[in-house]
Write a sequence for this structure.
């Protein structure tokens, strides 16, 4: 069992921030905004899926995972709440969150499916977020120039994503989820996630008035597509998930562990799994 810590972040998210809050960079701000816009509905889906997956296990398989799932739910619920506050500022800036509605409709349309598929989709998404989390921890320049409280929000979220990277995967495996469907769900989730975030980022840039500026797309290349960029730099690790013997714990999370240790003054511990 992975010990999970539920933390209350000690930052003020009531105060507004600038539209180009991420160092004055239009693309970085629009892209991170799109990610945040996906979180409240996504985090609730993860909570519901893993809770249902755990409930479907027999007692022998459920017992070793129960405490960790509670920690997972606590962390994800906190992420959902704080990003809802963040998104409230975006709404007041005039940004329209169309991603959330599309995702919610897709979740509703598939609600009748085998709970294992929902846990598998959650595990696949958690793999993507763990890759992003580790990349961000190694590339803090992606938040260069942002207010310290916003840097803390994103780095803390990233660190906790790395911390609970195994939970949904372990529930999926305990539920008898197959390798074949695990790979299928990764490919499906990857396509839908990037399609949703791309559409929302473009909408955000249109609102900002920077969609057609060369500087916007130069920033996009630096963030996403350079050799060690967020997308290009993670292709190999994305593929690792498809190996039959893959487990999320195989991927190093030491940088996130160190960040949490070195920034313990930024949060209060409200619960532990063990």
């Amino acid at each position: 069992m992975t010990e999970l810590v539920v933390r209350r972040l000690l930052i003020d998210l009531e105060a507004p921030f600038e539209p180009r809050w991420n160092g004055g960079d239009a693309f970085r701000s629009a892209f991170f905004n799109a990610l945040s816009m996906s979180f409240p509905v996504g985090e609730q889906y993860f909570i519901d899926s893993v809770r249902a997956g755990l409930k479907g296990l027999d007692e022998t398989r459920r017992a070793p995972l129960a405490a960790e799932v509670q920690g997972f739910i606590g962390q994800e619920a906190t992420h959902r709440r704080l990003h809802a506050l963040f998104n409230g500022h975006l709404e007041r800036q005039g940004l329209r969150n169309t991603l959330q509605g599309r995702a919610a409709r897709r979740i509703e349309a598939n609600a009748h499916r085998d709970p294992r598929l929902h846990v598998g989709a959650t595990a696949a998404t958690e793999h993507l977020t763990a890759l992003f989390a580790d990349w961000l921890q190694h590339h803090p320049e992606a938040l260069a120039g942002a207010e310290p409280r916003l840097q803390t929000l994103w780095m803390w979220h990233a660190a906790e994503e790395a911390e609970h990277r195994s939970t949904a995967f372990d529930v999926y495996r305990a539920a008898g989820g197959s390798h074949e469907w695990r790979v299928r769900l990764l490919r499906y989730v990857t396509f839908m996630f990037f399609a949703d975030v791309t559409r929302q980022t473009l909408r955000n840039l249109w609102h900002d008035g920077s969609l057609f500026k060369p500087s916007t797309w130069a920033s996009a290349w630096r963030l996403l597509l350079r050799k060690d960029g967020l997308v290009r730099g993670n292709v190999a690790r994305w593929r690792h998930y498809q190996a039959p013997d893959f487990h999320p714990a195989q991927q190093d999370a030491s940088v996130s562990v160190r960040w949490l240790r070195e920034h313990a003054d930024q949060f209060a511990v409200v619960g532990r799994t063990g």
Remarks:
- The chain has a mean pLDDT of 96.
- The longest strand covers residues 267-272.
- The chain is about 65% helix and 5% strand.
